[in-house]
Amino acid sequence: MRDDNCIFCKIANGEIPSATLYEDEDFRVILDLGPASKGHALILPKEHAANLYELPDELAAKAMVVAKKVGSVLAKGLNCDGLNVVQNNGEAAGQTVFHFHIHLIPRFKGDEKQVKLTWEPGKLTDEVKEEVLKLFP
Ligand code: AMP
Ligand code: ZN
After folding, report:
1. What is the position in ligand 1's atom list of the atom closest to the CA of 34?
2. pLDDT(1) > 90
3. Where are the beta strands (DSSP E) in 17-120?
4. Least crowded by CB within 10 Å, which of 58, 60, 108, 123?
5. Is the pLDDT of residue 31 over 70?
6. Where are the alpha helices (DSSP H) in 26-106?
């Protein structure tokens, strides 16, 4: 299903032009218009799903294969030093476009001032560990 009000549905299905790196039956991979780094790309399913929870299993599996394929070409071709594969769900997680997408972000040594994907490590307490483990009986 496509969502008429969704910009990524329009881009993924070719109704709005984009710098397309890769396309198959299920996905289009485009260059991000507000890139974190050179080659920052977005993997967009052609079918609308707001986030990872809504994405059908088959597309979720295929998306990772596309990430591997396109990520490998970017990494080799741009001679980058690393590659982050990032996927945000929900506003609190930084999602701004509510059509599932995976970011491929090539990383270059010394770019951490421009690309910020780190966090302050906390400490795993017994209480929290028990709470989360209980979710997976
Ligand atoms: P997120 O914050 O994970 O929802 O990521 C949304 C990404 O989409 C951001 O990196 C934006 O720069 C990018 N973006 C938004 N609109 C467009 C567009 N029309 N074409 C390409 N990238 C876009
Ligand atoms: Zn959509």
Report:
1. 12
2. no
3. 20-23, 27-31, 41-45, 82-86, 102-107
4. 123
5. yes
6. 57-78
Give the ligand 1 atom nearest the CA of 94: 2
CA of 50, nearest ligand number:
2
pTM confidence score: 0.97
Average pLDDT over residues 41-70: 98
Residue 9 amino acid letter: C
Burial class (CB in 10 A: 0-12, 13-18, 19+), 3: middle
Nearest-angstrom CA–CA distance, 112 and 44:
26
pLDDT at 136: 98
**pLDDT (0 to 100) of residue 57:** 98
**CA 109, chain centre distance (Å):** 21
Per-residue pLDDT reduced to its tens digit, 105-119: 999 999 999 999 999
Distances (CA, A) of 94 to 87, 88, 125, 130: 9, 6, 26, 28
pLDDT at 64: 98
109 C-alpha to ligand 1 centroid (Å): 24
Ligand 1 lining (C-beta closer than 6 Å): 7, 18, 30, 32-34, 42, 88, 94-97
Q: How many residues does the structure list for the chain?
A: 137
